[in-house]
């Protein structure tokens, strides 16, 4: 499985990066490929490429504030979570994604 995502929070500092790290750790623990773009106070980091988007099985987007360039994910399976959920419940999110993808 390949998971990509974008994390961002209103202040664009700690929670943005905590959420990205938690999702990466949880996905890697399941043996998934993962790349998370952060949209924080210093701009976009680890920017997702068109190839990343094309090869992704699922996209996780935080929904606390608008994600820049969200249209690039049109046609992909998108799951929206809060940045707090991503930071604190990443293993549960990955388990739900795994179940969802198995049923597809």
UniProtKB/TrEMBL annotation:
The record's Gene3D superfamilies line, in alphabetical order, gives: 3.40.50.2300
Tell me if Protein biosynthesis is a UniProt keyword of this record. no
Query: Which stretches make up the PTS EIIB type-2 domain?
Result: 1-99
Query: Does the record carry DNA-binding as a key word?
Result: no
Keywords of the record: Kinase, Phosphoprotein, Phosphotransferase system, Sugar transport, Transferase, Transport
Q: Per its UniProt record, what PROSITE patterns does this chain match?
A: PTS_EIIB_TYPE_2
Question: Which GO molecular function terms does the record list?
Answer: transferase activity
**Catalysed reactions listed for this entry:** D-fructose(out) + N(pros)-phospho-L-histidyl-[protein] = D-fructose 1-phosphate(in) + L-histidyl-[protein]
| The protein's enzyme class | transferase
Looking up InterPro entries in the UniProt record yields: Bacterial_PTS_Sugar_Transport (IPR050864), PTS_EIIB-like_sf (IPR036095), PTS_EIIB_2 (IPR013011), PTS_EIIB_2/3 (IPR003501), PTS_IIB_fruc (IPR003353)
- What EC number(s) are associated with this protein in UniProt? 2.7.1.202
Enumerate the NCBIfam families for this protein. Answer: FRU, PRK10474.1
Name of the protein: protein-N(pi)-phosphohistidine--D-fructose phosphotransferase
């Amino acid at each position: 499985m390949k998971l990509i995502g974008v994390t961002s929070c209103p202040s664009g500092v700690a929670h943005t990066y905590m959420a990205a790290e938690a999702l990466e750790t949880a996905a890697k623990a399941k043996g998934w490929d993962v790349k998370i773009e952060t949209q924080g106070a210093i701009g976009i980091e680890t920017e997702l490429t068109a190839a990343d988007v094309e090869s992704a099985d699922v996209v996780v987007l935080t929904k606390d504030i608008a994600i820049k360039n969200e249209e690039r994910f049109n046609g992909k399976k998108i799951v929206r979570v809060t940045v707090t959920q991503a930071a604190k419940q990443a293993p549960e999110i990955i388990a739900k994604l795994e179940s969802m993808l198995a049923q597809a």
